Amino acid sequence: MDRYEPLKIEEKWQKIWEKTEAFKATEKDGTPKMFLAEMFPYPSGAGLHVGHVRNFTIVDVLARFFNQQGLNVLRPFGYDTFGLPAENYAIKTGTAPQEITKVNIANFRKQAKRLGYAIDWSREVNTSDPEYYRWTQWCFLQLYKKGLAYQKESYQWWCPEDQTVLANEQVENGKCWRCGHEVEKKKMKQWFFKITEYADELLDEIDNLEWPEKIKTMQKNWIGRSVGAEIDFKVMSASGHPQLRRGRSDEPRNDGSEERPLDDITLKVFTTRPDTILGATFLVVAPEHKDLEALTTDDTREKVLAYKAAALKKSEIERQENKEKTGVFTGSYAENPATKEKIPVYVADYVLAGYGTGAIMAVPAYDDRDREFAEKFDLPVVEAELIDRDLYGTPKTTYRMRDWLISRQRYWGCPIPIAYDKDGNPHPIPEDQLPVLIPEVEDYKPSGDGRSALAKATDWLKVTINGEEMTRETDTLDGYACSSWYLWRYASPRDEKAAWDQDAVKYWEPLDYYCGGDHAVAHLLYIRFWCKFFADLGFLPFREPVKRLLYNGYINAPDGKKMSKSKGNVIDPLDVINDGYGADTLRTYEMFIGPYDQDAAWDPRSVGGVYRFLNRCYNLCFVNELNGNDEETRVIRNKTIKKVTEDIHRYNFNTAVAALMEYVNELYKVGATNEDVATLAKLLKPFAPHLASEMLEKLNTTDEWPKWDEKYLASDTVEIIVQVNGKLRAKLTINKSDLEDEEKVINLALTDEKVKKFTESGIKKTIFVPRAKILNLVV
User: Fold this and answer.
1) Rounded CA gap, 777 and 746, in Å?
2) What is the pLDDT of residues 270-290, one digit of tens each?
C-alpha cells in the first residue's frame, strides 16, 4: 500500500493474532511473570463506550510493553453479567436474561477484538456461567462453615404496590422507579458476610498498598475505625423517676402470665470522646433504635412515629448529607452519670442505627452537628472541663463499615446454596450438588411476597438433603460476591475440580496491575476480605490480591459534560474506527488525551491529529526513503527510548505519545535510518499495535523493546526557561559553558522575538537562577 489504510492493516493483524493464539499465556519456569487485568465490565446491550476503551487500553499498553521486555504476560478478560439491567429487560420483554447476556457478551468480545487487545481469550470468564457460579456457591459455603455467612433481620426498601424489595438505585425521590408508588422500609431476614471480622487487618494494611492515595483514603473512611467507650445512661421520666417499660417479646416470661416483666431502661451510647461527658446535655437515638418505642411517651407518640416513618424513607446517604438538622423529643430523659443531671432524649435521623450503639451523647460545645441541633431546639451548650477518659464507660472500638448485606430478592443472580427444613432452619447444600442452577421461569416478575421469581419454580424449590425434603433459598447473591474471586479463577478458568488451581495461583498471583475507573471502595474491600479469608483457610499463599492499582479518569463529552444516552452525547468507539480512523488512532488518542488519572473531554480535532501522526509513521516506513545519517539521529533516538520507557513505567502515557510525536518530527527534519524507524515501530507498538506490527514486518525485525545508550544522552547544551513577570515566554538553548555568564544569558534572551514582544516597556529587574535554569524578567 502506498498510503495508510488502517482498517485493512488492522483486519490483517487481528486475523493473524487469533489464528496463532498470539496472547495465550502458560506458566514458564525461570521467566518473570506479569499479570494484568481491568475491573471486568458489565456487558450492556449498548456495547463498549469510550470510557471502556481508556480503561482497557491502559491495561493493554502495559501488557504489550512488558511482553516486549521479555516478561511472561497474562492478560485475561471476563464479564460481570448478573444484575438488574438484564432482569428488568426480561421483565419488560419476556426474553430470558441468559439469552440477553449471551448476545451482549458476543458483541463485547467482537468489539474488544476490533481494538486489537492482547487478550488470552482461552481464559475468558462469565459470572453467570454455571461452571463459574458453581464455585461462587462453593465460596459461600466456606464462609458459611466458618460462621462468616449468617442471617439476621434488616430494613429493606419495599414497594407495597409491586410487592417487591427495591435496591437503593430503584428508589427515586422516595418512590418506586417502576410504578411510582411511595416506598417504605420493611424488616426482612437477610444474609450477610461478616467482613467486620477482618476490619482491623483491612485498615492496617492499607498504607502498605501501592495504590492511589485517594483510593486508600476512601477505604480508610469506609472502614471508619473509631476508638472510644460505651457509657450507660439510665433513662427516667419527666418526674425524675426511673422509666419503666414493657419487656421486649424476646424476653422470657418469669411467672407464666400474659404480661412481660417490667425493667429499667438503660441507654448504652458510644462516644469517641468520653472525656467530654460533663458537657453532654442531651442524648439522641436513631429512628431504628430498638428501644425507641419504649422511650416514647403517650403525649409524644404521634410525632415520634411520624418522624420515624419519614426517616425510614431516606437513605443513609441522604440522612448524612442533609444540612438541616431535624428531630423529635421522645418525652423521656436520662441521667448524666457524671453530672447526675437530667437530660432529654431525642430521636434524629443524623444518628445511624448501624454505627456504634445507635445512640449518642450530644456534646454541643465540642461537636458541630450537636451544636447545630442544640441551637435549633434551644438546648444548653455547656463548655465543661475535660476529664480522664477512663473514668466512665467501657473501652470500645467500633467501625463505620457494616457487615456485607449479600441477599438480593432477584431472579438473575447466583442462587444462595441454602435450603430450609420444615422448621425454617437453614442447611447448606452439599458441595456435590453444586451448582444450584438458575431454573427457567415463564414470568420474571418478583413473586409478590418479597421473594424473587425463583419462588415460582415450584419443582426447583424442592430439594432432598440427607433424606429430608427441604425448600431452597430464593434469594440470590449480591453481584459483588461473584466479582470477589474472579482474579484467582483467571489462573485456571477451566478447572473442574477446584475454584482455582493452587500451583497456577502460586505462579501468577497476586495480580500485578489492576485498572479501573469505578468501584473505588466496595469491590476493592470485598476482594481484599475474601483474599484474607481464603489465605486463612490455606487456599491462597498471599493476603493482598492486588499489588498495584491504577484508577483512571472519565472521558466526558466535548463540552465537558458527562456522556449519557439521555443527553445524546455518547461517543461510540466503533464509529471512530469505522469512520476510517481505525483502532490504532482511537487507542493512541485515548492515551494522549491527558494524564490517565484525570477526567478529559473528547476532542474530535485531536483524534484527527493523532491519525495524521500515525500516517506520518506509516510514510516513514513505507513511502519515504531511509537516507538519514545515524550520527545525526542517534542522540534523539536514544533520548526518545529513555523518555518513552520511563514514561510508561510512570504511567505517563500521554507524554510518552508526545515524545513519539517529537521524535517523528525530528526524523522528518533530518532524515531517518532503518534503525530509527525500527525503534519507532517498537516504541509505538503498545499504543498502535497493528501499524507497528506492519512496520516491523516490513523492516524484518523483532519487537524486542529497545535499550538506550547513556553515552548518547550527554549534551554540551542546556535549556533555559525565560519568563516575563513569572509567565513562560521562551526557551533558549545555550552552551553549558555559558550557564554562569548571567549577562550573556540575558542578552541572548532579549534577542528572542517572543521575549521582545513582552519587554518593550523596559525591564525593571532580572532574576537568574543558573541551577534551576530559569531567567525571570520583571517589567
Assistant:
1) 9
2) 999 999 999 999 999 999 999
